[in-house]
Amino acid sequence: MNEFDVIRKLSGLLPPAPPEVLVPIGDDCAVLRLGGGTWAAASDMLVSGRHFKGWADPADVGYKAVAVNVSDVAAMGGTPRFILVSGAAPDPETALGVFEGVAEACGEFGVYPLGGDTTGADALTVDVAILGEIEGVPVLRSGARPGDLLAVTGELGASAAGLLALEEGREGFERLKARHLRPRPRVGTGRAAARLGVGAMIDLSDGLASDVRHVCERSEVGCRVDLDALPVSEDARRLAASLGRDPGVLAATGGEDYELLVSAPEHVLDALAETAGLPVTVVGEVTGAGIDFRRGGDVVEELSGWDHFS
Amino acid sequence: MNEFDVIRKLSGLLPPAPPEVLVPIGDDCAVLRLGGGTWAAASDMLVSGRHFKGWADPADVGYKAVAVNVSDVAAMGGTPRFILVSGAAPDPETALGVFEGVAEACGEFGVYPLGGDTTGADALTVDVAILGEIEGVPVLRSGARPGDLLAVTGELGASAAGLLALEEGREGFERLKARHLRPRPRVGTGRAAARLGVGAMIDLSDGLASDVRHVCERSEVGCRVDLDALPVSEDARRLAASLGRDPGVLAATGGEDYELLVSAPEHVLDALAETAGLPVTVVGEVTGAGIDFRRGGDVVEELSGWDHFS
């Protein structure tokens, strides 16, 4: 049994959704209609030894736990508003460090901490639950249509490159390390994309090769992605090369960039690029069926058949 | 530094509360005004080795993680509505077991699961965040007034007795074990207490000796509690006696009963007892200052001075 089987078995256990539920489990956030407002809700957990190691200090972990949840709200086109934070830490000093990072992220993203829980544990574990406000209609994973272009914000592979630099104990590469430790969710760009009416949106947490598959499955479409088109920065390329890694593959599979992947017609992407204040790069297009990663004219098999759960 | 110091330092890091926040951190739940409605929000985390051991199966852990959050909403006089669940488990089978318990609790308490996160970890860890709906005004910890009586719902010490039976590997005592593994939050009674206008309310998670202190601190009052008045069941007394434990002390300090402690004038408690469908037992009264646990006429020093954080 893998994570996918667990999710499939679980969906059989779900009770009927109450009328407030506009979007149930299965997207970046669930969406609720409460009073006159529309609210996105999600949670994400970071565990020591799985999501980070000794190279992350407790404040980094607290900051990132907030940021990755903010990114889920950004991917619906929402504004992050409130969080709950549960932290399990081996000692009170570590817990305090986590909450200092949480508070810093709250200030940066305009999020208010409503409370949570603190407990002891051998492994530092931080779970954040978030409520975000959506003006208008949430952008779902299911809205991609054949003929749409696929575009990503910012850059890909920087976080994975930063992680490699941290894991290998490389000097320098501070920008890449910071991209991994303190990701910068694209809240303003997500809201702009929603206003402009993009078809589908998802945040790039697992990596493009996996996340584009989520969009295609929910939208019942396929896609063609050009590895050479992925926006990879010069320092990320340099680090990848020094470790014998293919920068395009790193950018497609590394994950944790917390950029946005959007599908939309070209004129919508042009309008988004004008307002975004960061690069919006076309990386492929939506097709009728099949996930097709290419480099030039050649199919890259290991990505086209890539399985996140294996 | 202890948990109390952490919380004190953290309150200095809080940004100003947005206008939606009616009750910030520091009560059983935070309370938000969203659209036309009033919503309670809280989260609680359970960690293997701290909150449970091998005697709890994954479904018990999932069930309890929901129940303890439902209890927080009950303590505000609210109705539990939506949860997010983040689970870290050593293998997918354990994760599935947790979510089966979560689904069972959702059915039992009328709560809808909006989603969450699943990840790997050495120690099973489950965090639940909850949204509850409040009709009318939330009941806070800060509303106790000198002259009010203090009463508890149901029974105390059963969960602690059940935990002892589980830890000691005792045969039998199934009712007590179930009280520990699958607590029964008092949602209907909490709502009735809110409608009847009780002064203060808290759920008994840490144990009466600690939780009554939270009420007194927030209300800036004291209390007198009679250990002999605590409602302790015959089987809990029998188990305590067999282990040489004082049943009154066990009931006051054991914790995890998830009953409600309310402060109110006598006629309000009488009305509550009529509608509650379970015992509502007067255990003491609110005074001007000082925490005073007594047995007959004698002060019980170790409880009157009891410090949850030491």
UniProtKB/TrEMBL annotation, chains A, B:
It comes from the Bacteria. Pathway: Cofactor biosynthesis; thiamine diphosphate biosynthesis; thiamine diphosphate from thiamine phosphate: step 1/1. Residues 145-290 form the PurM-like C-terminal domain. It catalyses: thiamine phosphate + ATP = thiamine diphosphate + ADP. SUPFAM superfamilies: PurM C-terminal domain-like (SSF56042), PurM N-terminal domain-like (SSF55326). Residues 26-134 form the PurM-like N-terminal domain. Transmembrane segments: none annotated. Pfam families: AIRS, AIRS_C. CDD domains: ThiL (cd02194). Its EC number is 2.7.4.16. Substrate binds at residues 51, 256, 306. Mg(2+) 4 binds at residues 28, 72. It is an enzyme of class 2 (transferase). Mg(2+) 5 binds at residue 206. Signal peptide: none annotated. GO terms for molecular function: ATP binding; magnesium ion binding; thiamine-phosphate kinase activity. Mg(2+) 2 binds at residues 44, 72. The keyword Protein transport does not apply. One of its GO terms (biological process) is thiamine biosynthetic process. Mg(2+) 3 binds at residues 28, 72, 203. Belongs to the thiamine-monophosphate kinase family. Catalyzes the ATP-dependent phosphorylation of thiamine-monophosphate (TMP) to form thiamine-pyrophosphate (TPP), the active form of vitamin B1. This is Thiamine-monophosphate kinase.
